[in-house]
Automatic annotation (TrEMBL):
Gene Ontology molecular functions: hydrolase activity
Protein name, entry field: Phosphoribosyl-ATP pyrophosphohydrolase
InterPro entries: DCTPP
Highest taxon in the source lineage: Bacteria
Keywords from the UniProt entry: Hydrolase
Amino acid sequence: MHLNDIALRIENLSIQYAEVYGINRSADWALLKLTEEVGELAQAHLTATGQSRNRGLSTEEQQQLVANELGDVLGMCLVYAKQLGIDPEVAIAEKWFRHEKVPAASPE
């Protein structure tokens, strides 16, 4: 599955969420939600790494919480990109992959 396919599915879920809760989805809203989710990821990380109270969760539950919060962060990044009309695959390729070092051709 490609990132744009995932983005479309998440966008549809975000639209449904907004309809249920009467939310006006905008780039501002998406950025604030992304910020909220990053905070929740940080809290989950602190708990999972023993830098905060364990909240009564097992090690496995703490790791799952980190994974869930990371999923929220990634999802909201994609929603934010959609709000701004940014293709996430292009954005990543242009920002990250231009730094890749192409391996030297092997001598034959």
